[in-house]
Amino acid sequence: MIEIKKIENIYCVGRNFEGHAKELGNKVPAAPLIFQKSNSTINFTNKIEVPKNKTIEHELEVVVLIGKNGSAKTHKEARSFISGFSVGLDLTDRELQGDLKKKGLPWFAAKSFKGSAVLDKNFKPECPKEFYLNVNHKLKQKGSLKDMIFSFEDIIFHISKIVDFKKGDIIFTGTPEGVGTLERGDQIEMGFTSHYTKKLFVV
Ligand code: MG
Fold it and tell me: Does the pLDDT value for residue 27 go beyond 80?
């Protein structure tokens, strides 16, 4: 396990699985679609608080930890920036996101609310190939790295053309299909298939 001392920036990739892009009626992007959450939204606890009168959806994602400062000068160099892999939930206020999209406005408020970056703090040195989310003991999302439109290297090389990374940055690398609403009382299990599972409760 890799211990993280402090999370710096949180980058997220939108529409990185064809099945998910289609389920929301979106086209697959030609380049990685990057947005951010505030680093104060990190939630390492076992509780997910759903804000009152909001419809919050789960997006299960592999989260990559950046292990050094700087930027990848080449695609080949991109891998050397990764120091660990975990799973997380990019929680999304889908109704608000829809309104903002219609108005052509940034998604920030729909993605970056209190506790919206749910994360298992146990990062692994290697990335297992599959990951999953159970809600109330039923499989809701299952992802495979081979279905990612943009690889970890593609994403890191793309972000490197925009900004420098800081050691401790993380990247939510996109959700497979099967996103859905979280309700109070839901029991969540998420993890890499056949590996450690993190259990959470929606309150
Ligand atoms: Mg997402």
Answer: yes
Ligand 1 midpoint to CA 73 (Å): 26
Question: Closest Cα partner for 31 from 126, 178, 149, 174?
Answer: 149
With 70 as the cut, is the pLDDT of residue 79 above it? yes
Structure tokens that stand for 197 in this block: 């599972």
Q: Is 108 exposed, middle or buried (0-12, 13-18, 19+ CB in 10 A)?
A: middle
Rounded alpha-carbon distances, angstroms, from residue 138 to 42, 125, 141, 166, 194? 25, 28, 9, 37, 16
pLDDT tens column, 84-134: 999 999 999 999 999 999 999 999 999 999 999 999 999 999 999 999 999
8 Å CB contact between 167 and 117: no
The Cα-based distances of 50 to 26, 62, 203 in angstroms read 26, 22, 6
Tokens 């989310």, residue located: 133
For the chain, domain boundaries: 2-202
**Predicted pLDDT of residue 196:** 67
CA of 175 to the centre of ligand 1 (A): 5
CATH domain 2-202 topology: Fumarylacetoacetate hydrolase; domain 2 (3.90.850)
- Report CA(105)–ligand 1 centroid distance (Å): 17
